[in-house]
Structure formats: C-alpha cells, structure tokens
Design a protein that fits this description.
The protein is an alpha+beta fold and 150 residues long. The chain is 18% helix and 38% strand. It has 2 domains: 66 residues, 2,3-Dihydroxybiphenyl 1,2-Dioxygenase, domain 1; 53 residues, 2,3-Dihydroxybiphenyl 1,2-Dioxygenase, domain 1 (Roll), CATH 3.10.180. This is Glyoxalase/bleomycin resistance/dioxygenase family protein.
Length: 150
Amino acid sequence: MQLKDPLLKTHHTAICVNDFERAKAFYIDFLGFTLEGEMDHRDEAALGEVVGLPGAVIRWAMLAHGPHRIELFKYYTPQGDTQARRQCDFGYSHFAFQVEDVDAVYEQVIKAGYKTTAPPRSLRGGRSRVIYVTEPEGAITEFIQLSPDA
C-alpha cells in the first residue's frame, strides 16, 4: 500500500558518531556543509520516545548542503555499538553524492588524508564511475559520476 499523500522531498540523513568534532569537521570543512543548528546534552523526553531510547542524552547538529541535510548524533546515554559497519551488514550502508569528476574528488580525498576502499572504478558498463570514502569513523560516503548517457 502506498502513502496517501506523496512525499515532498528528501530532508536529511542521520549519522550517529563517536567523535562529534571530527565528524562535524569532515562534513563542514571537507564537504562544504554549513551548520544550521547544534545542541549539547539534549535530553528532552520526547526525543527519547521518538528514537525508542527513553532517557537518551545526545549531542546533536544539523548540517546543510543545498536542499539536503546531515543530522549528526552522539549518544551520551545509552552507549551504543562503536564499531564501524561493513557494507554487507544489515541496515543502511552508505549515502552518495553525485559529482562531475570523481577522479578529481579522489585526488582531493587523498590530499586531505581520507581513505577510500579503492581508487575510482567504472561500473555498470561505464555508465558510472565511483569511489567509496571511509569517513573518520568508518562510515562510507560514495561519490558517483554518471556518464552523460546514463
């Protein structure tokens, strides 16, 4: 069954992090997001109810780039699993940004000291060229260049 009212647009992607400052710097200083809002030790009861973790206490920020946002969370309480997820692990695995020149992005990634899972690779018979960047805490961000006829 489909939703009765259509979705308006994509709003944000939420990411839970261990080192809040390092993650925030990746999105702001390297990817060019801007800070829309930030709160430390956010503990409103409704938040714990919404996320299904009563008593949750978090550090929070909303970062924007064009129409999309990244919502950063650092949980003080409860303490969660701090290990990075593999792409084959259950649940969301990564998100992607479309770019004009993935090879140029790759050079910037390497120059900035970030790691990739592999150098840029062409996929789908040359219709796309991609890299997976390992963020400071191990999460993956994909950069994808689409061929004009893709």
